[in-house]
Amino acid sequence: MSLPNEALQKIGIAKAQVTTKQKAIRLLDLTSSEMSSLPKDTPVYEGVGKMFVGVPMSTVDKRLVAEKAELKSDVSGLEKKLSSLEMTHKNSMEHYERFVKSGGKA
After folding, report:
1. What's the whole-model pTM score?
2. MF terms per GO, please (predicted)?
């Protein structure tokens, strides 16, 4: 039964991807809330390679918002994919059980 095992693996991968992206969203929310508590004239730095570069706080806010929106759309797509994979797995198991109960007659 490679189909159900393969489907279960794909379901597990999709769930792991959703969890990872949701964790990244929470981290972006935390970063955004921490930055909003700072005064507007606070120097903000972003890592670029092996160094840090000073950037305006508004630029960092825009980047955080854009990343969060992208992650949310990724999560939405992955949840649709996950739903589809779960439905496929359920249907294949039902067909398999029906086939076994009928004695192997198609």
Report:
1. 0.79
2. protein folding chaperone; unfolded protein binding
